[in-house]
Amino acid sequence: MSPIVSVKNLRKSYAGGFEALKSVNLDIEEGEILALLGPNGAGKTTLISTICGITVPTSGTVTVGGHDTQTAFRAARNLIGLVPQEINLEPFETVMNTVSFSRGLFGKKKDDAFVEDILRKLSLHDKKDNKIMMLSGGMKRRVLIAKALSHEPKVLFLDEPTAGVDVELRKDMWDVVADLKASGVTIILTTHYIEEAEAIADRVGVINKGEILLVQDKSDLMRQLGQKQLKIELNEATSRIPDALSAYDLSLSDDGLMLTYSYDTKAERTGITTLLNELQAAGLQLKDLQTAQSSLEDIFVGLVKEKA
C-alpha cells in the first residue's frame, strides 16, 4: 500500500542562504501516529507548513493521498487538517459557528449533526453555544482540533498541540488523539514533550537543523538504541573502582555508594553474573540492585548531540 503522505528530497532555503529543510525524505502510513521530535528551530513547523502547502518548497515533492501539493493543491489540501501552534480564534463567535464556518471554507455542505458529533467527541458539546472568549486555553485547543476535523480530513497535523496545557489536560488530549486514530485518521504531531511521543506514537521521527536523523518504530527504537543500566548499591562507600573491574563499563557516584553498569540489551550476554562475582571477589559488598531502561528522552538527546 502506498503511504498516505510521501515527502521526497524536500528542501527549503531562504534568500540569506539559510536552509530550513535539507533534502528531507519521509513516508507516513495511513492510520499511524507519527511523532516528530526536535529542538526549537529544528524545522518541524517548516516541514508541516510545506506538506500542507502553506510554504512553497525550494525543491522536492510532497504528495498527500497521491495528490501533489504543488500541482494538485486543492485535492491534497482537502485531505489535510491542520492544528497550528497559535490559538487564533474569533473571540466573539460561538464554538458551533466557528467549527461550521471552517467546514464551509472547504466547500462542504452545512451539516450541524456532523459538527455536533465532533464537538461531542472532543467534550465540547456542552459549550457549543459559548463564545470562544469564555473558554479556557485547553478548550480553545480542542476547538482548533474541531475546526481541523470539520471537513473530514484523512490526515491531521498537530503542531505542538499541548504547548502551555497542564498535565491533566495533556493526558486528556492524548485520549482524543487515540480516539481519532481509532476512527481512521492519520496523525502527525510535533512536540517538545518526550513523554507525549512515548505515550501515543507508533513511530518517532527526530529532526534537527532541517535534517531527519531517523524515523523508526517506537518500540524498535527503544530496543535498538536504548541502553539498560544496572544500579548497584554498596554497603560501604568506596573511593575508586577496583582495577580488577576496569573491563566493565562502570561509573561511581560522588558519595562512593553507587556503581552504575551500562550494558547492551541486544547482546547475547549482559556480563552481569560475572560482574557480580568479581565485585564480591574485589571485596565490595552489595546492598541492593535495580535496573533501568533508557528513556526516549535519553535517546533523543544522544542523537541530537551526535549530529551537533
Automatic annotation (TrEMBL):
CDD domains, alphabetized: ABC_DR_subfamily_A
Residue span, ABC transporter domain: 5-234
Keyword Nucleotide-binding in record: yes
Keywords: ATP-binding, Nucleotide-binding, Transport
Top-level taxon of the source organism: Bacteria
SMART domains for the chain: AAA
Alphabetized SUPFAM superfamilies for the sequence: P-loop containing nucleoside triphosphate hydrolases
GO MF annotations in UniProt: ATP binding; ATP hydrolysis activity
InterPro entries: AAA+_ATPase (IPR003593), ABC_transporter-like_ATP-bd (IPR003439), ABC_transporter-like_CS (IPR017871), ABC_transporter_ATP-binding (IPR050763), P-loop_NTPase (IPR027417)
The name this protein goes by in its record: ABC-2 type transport system ATP-binding protein
Source organism per UniProt: Yoonia litorea
